[in-house]
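Researcher: Let's do a round of design. I'm pasting the structure tokens now; please hold your answer until I've finished.
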């Protein structure tokens, strides 16, 4: 799916802070066929597939196992950050201008899951998604689904199912909920990023050959793994 802009309050960008850039670059390049650009002055490296932006890799800044960061597009990042604070979230990095690209903020929601906000300037976010090797969705790993639902409904207008087993985002995508991540992930809760695959089990085997470890297989055929540096990610069946 080619993308030119992302609706407000939907996932627009993903990036991974890694403690071992070379290992991480080699892994995702081999697994997904990405082209990883040379680092900018901050060590941030854009990843493309067939010339289209799909993700980025950068130096790890948090303690514990690295994790894929979910970035949500908002129209007014300062107003959204204030709303997050009023609803019980922590603002780890306040809204900050990133040159002409846009404005960014880093938050920790009330159940302990990191989530970043992005107000776009010249950088709108991902240019491809829901194709093999690209972003396919997110799911919340937590033991506190009801608490999370009570936050995200007013914070980002995400509706939850009656049992809080999934969220519906404004673009009608579905984000499920499930058990929290096992150690060594430091966060109490975490947004898991999944990538589309034509053959999740075959790609999971390929990932293991490249140094990943399998965490679980879900009944729907999705697979959750840790990459060679410990970052969780999912593989989900691509709908042709």
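Researcher: That's everything. Go ahead.
Model: Designed sequence:
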């Amino acid at each position: 799916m080619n993308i030119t802009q992302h609706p407000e309050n939907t996932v627009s960008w993903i990036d991974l802070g890694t403690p071992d850039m070379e290992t991480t670059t080699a892994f995702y390049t081999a697994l997904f066929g990405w082209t990883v650009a040379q680092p900018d002055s901050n060590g941030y490296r854009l990843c493309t597939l067939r010339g289209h932006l799909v993700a980025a890799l950068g130096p790890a800044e948090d303690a514990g196992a690295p994790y894929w960061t979910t970035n949500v597009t908002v129209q007014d990042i300062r107003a959204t950050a204030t709303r997050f604070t009023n609803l019980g979230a922590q603002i780890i990095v306040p809204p900050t201008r990133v040159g002409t690209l846009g404005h960014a903020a880093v938050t920790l929601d009330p159940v302990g899951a990191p989530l970043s906000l992005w107000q776009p300037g010249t950088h709108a976010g991902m240019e491809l998604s829901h194709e093999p090797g690209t972003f396919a969705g997110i799911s919340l790993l937590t033991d506190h689904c009801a608490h999370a639902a009570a936050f995200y409904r007013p914070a980002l207008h995400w509706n939850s199912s009656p049992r809080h087993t999934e969220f519906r985002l404004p673009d009608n995508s579905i984000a499920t909920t499930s058990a929290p991540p096992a150690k060594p992930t430091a966060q109490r809760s975490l947004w898991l990023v999944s990538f589309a695959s034509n053959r999740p089990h075959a790609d999971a085997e390929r990932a293991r050959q490249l140094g990943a470890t399998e965490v679980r297989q879900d009944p729907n055929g999705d697979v959750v793994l840790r990459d060679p540096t410990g970052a969780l990610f999912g593989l989900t069946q691509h709908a042709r």
